[in-house]
Design brief:
single chain; globular; 2 helices; Metal Binding Protein, Guanine Nucleotide Exchange Factor, Chain A; 133 residues; mainly beta; six-stranded antiparallel sheet
Length: 133
């Protein structure tokens, strides 16, 4: 996969203020604010920055947390993981887009089977393309 790199000014010009804050400044949107949290259609969730395919609606579930949640990424190399210690002493695993390094959210070990994982993503970091029939 070819890496995408842009200057800060290029990202600011391309993204909305909220998308930029979340994806490039590692922000978190308020819970229950993204329409993607309640999206039920079949389709693919893509990176809002570079368009990379990240998650399938088949792996989405209602976690009750207020953010779109998935049991796994579309492919193992679609995302990367980094240790995040930004919340004081709490160690979390940050999820980023493997193609453009956009901050997407975090993964937690409290999801449903079959993976037991909850990829808790910011809706502001995702675009959704509904599947065609």
């Amino acid at each position: 996969m070819e890496k995408i790199e842009k200057s800060d000014a290029e990202w600011k010009a391309q993204l909305t203020r909220e998308q930029y804050r979340v994806t490039r400044r590692h922000g978190t949107e308020p819970p229950y604010t993204s329409p993607l949290n309640v999206e039920k259609a079949a389709g693919t969730y893509r990176c809002v920055c570079c368009g990379a395919d990240l998650f399938s609606s088949a792996d989405k579930f209602d976690s009750g947390t207020g953010w779109p949640s998935f049991t796994k990424p579309l492919s193992p190399d679609a995302v990367t993981e980094r240790t995040d210690r930004s919340l004081f002493l709490i160690k979390r695993t940050e999820i980023r887009c493997a193609r453009c390094d956009a901050h997407l959210g975090h993964v937690f070990p409290d999801g449903p089977e079959p993976t037991g994982l909850r990829y808790c993503m910011n809706g502001a970091a995702l675009d959704f393309e509904e599947a065609t029939r």
